[in-house]
Amino acid sequence: EVQVVESGGGLVQPGGSLRLSCAVSGFMYWMYWVRQAPGKGLEWVSRINSITGSIYNADSVEGRFTMHRVNARNMLYLQMNSLKSEDTAVYYCATSPSGDQRGQGTQVTVST
After folding, report:
1. Per DSSP, what are the bridge partners of residue 5?
2. Cα dihedral 33→35→41→43 (10° resolution)
3. Dihedral sign, CA of 89, 35, 7, 86?
4. Which of 54, 68, 106, 112 matches a 20 to 30 Å C-alpha distance to 33?
5. What pLDDT digit, counting tens, does each position of 71-82 carry?
6. Is 30 exposed, middle or buried (0-12, 13-18, 19+ CB in 10 A)?
7. Quick check: 58 and 80 in contact, CB under 8 A?
């Protein structure tokens, strides 16, 4: 079983940046960042292969978000740049694109 704790969210203006962190205990081949915007379902944002380090991003964030890992610290990160209002959501670290074994999440609000 994987346990995760997300952190790093906050309020940021459009065009700004944030870095989210995910402390991970346990191992899964694929780890995901997913998000849930107000009134919407879960949407996968980015995923990383824990063995190869290969990264895949959703079209909605490609070129703006970057996921990376630091295995020695059991940490995953999501660097978010050029944030838009539509990126406002609760962000979760999870073991599947549907949000399995996700934590409590961290709120990201993009607004003036």
Report:
1. 23
2. -50
3. negative
4. 112
5. 888 999 999 999
6. middle
7. no
Condensed to tens digits (0 to 9), the pLDDT of residues 13-48 reads 999 999 999 999 988 899 999 999 999 999 999 999
CA distance 107 to 9: 5
User: pLDDT value at position 104?
Assistant: 97
Mean pLDDT of the chain: 95
CB-hemisphere CA count at 13 Å for 90? 14
Q: How far apart are CA 99 and CA 13, in angstroms?
A: 27
Q: E-assigned strands of the chain?
A: 3-7, 10-12, 18-25, 30-36, 42-49, 55-57, 65-70, 75-80, 89-94, 106-110
Question: What percent of the chain lies above the pLDDT cut of 70?
Answer: 100
Unique residue bearing structure tokens 């996700």? 102
- Name the β-bridge partners of 44: 34
How far apart (Å, rounded) are the C-alpha atoms in residues 51 and 105?
A: 24
